[in-house]
Amino acid sequence: MQIRSVQAVFCSVLFLTAVDSQGAERPNFIVLIADDIGYDDLGCYGSMDARTPRIDALAKEGLRFSNAFLTASSCSPSRASIITGRYPHNNGEAAELHRPIPGHLPSVSGILRDHGYYAALAGKNHMTWAETSVKQVPTKAFDKIYPPKIKGNSGGHGNWIRALEEAPTDKPFFLWLAALDAHRVWDGNLEWDEDRFGAKHDADTVILPPALLDTPQTRFDFASYMNEVTRFDHYVGRVVDWLKENDRFNNTYLIVISDNGRPFPRAKTRLHDDGMKTCFIGTGPTIAGRGAVSDSLISVIDIAPTLCELAGAKGSATFQGRSLSPVFKDVEAGIRRYAFSEHNWHDYEALGRSVRDGRYLYIVNERPQFALQGPADSVASRSFQDLLAAHKAGKLVSPVHQDIFQAPRAKTELYDTEADPHQIHNLAGNPRLAKVEKQLAAALEFWREETADSTPAEISADYFDNETGKRL
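Below the sequence we write its predicted structure tokens.
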């Protein structure tokens, strides 16, 4: 009897040792999320202004996606979509800004916690879960949540290294490291450190996006934004340095993305690429082709099922994305024919849906009577106010500028994103592209039916003045 007990204890020790060993070998995950940074405002995505050496270097060590898209160009709906792996309208109230995720929906981080992972959030959160009456409540998303700001650093990255240092060493980890850069207002100017970030961007030399007017105020506004892009880059580099110094880099998957487009007119909240396209850089143990670029069409809802598969965990039946693992192994592999996005209330009444096939973008405006001027903080900016003044004076002649104030808008829009990267020329109704338009319209309609999307008669109305950006 005593021999049996000794044998049982010995077997138990062997089993627990094996489990610990497997746990140590499982990969870590870090999702680094920028706030309001346009996909093409990074050096590795072609920006002539950007000073983003650390992200550019990371892209050379891993895989950069050129056709990665968000499901919403709006802060909290976008983040909720990423962490639940679901389209915004399938996240209930969370489809709109500042609203909670339904409590019965699991998160990718909660599922990883169920499988032995430690999960923490450091930086901008902007996600809440509503209470639920279901008996089996999903595991909470995070073991620990760090404050977004520390003294001298309002950019959301002040606790990133602390989160890494405090992660337990006997478990693999999932870290959601979310910056407040480059969300307005520009506190980066006030906290600038030339020793770490270099000189500030020169307002006289920055290259403005086509939607902006070339004025001194707008130039200062855009240069201030680019300062925060550089600050974000610096802290991404510090995370990479920590991982390498502590021998954790090779067993960690890093994903660098943004939650929506830059906070300027004709970008954030738009269904066009300047609002909905995102940078997407990944490094990790199974990612092939160092420095490769994949043109494969992907969506941020593909992140959740990907991480679960890589962790050896069963993904949730609620996930609506597809695993990126095939593309990680072969950069030319395709996992989806279409990417779908949506725009719901974000400061102003709006409802729109879109579908992309990698080249063409098709948009349906369900509130065509309203102009798409952008979120309230952008409307209050000098960049928008300069445009508004020129618009009222009848001095806006460029189609891209006029589009910001166009009302009513076309019910449908079609763009060739290769020939027209800023989507200025609406080709809807063009006989030459009738087949393309019909296919995309059918795909969008099928997706809306399949995901139980709807066009409600009444939705949230404007909360802010559409000329000043002030709360009504």
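The first strand starts at residue 28 and ends at 34.
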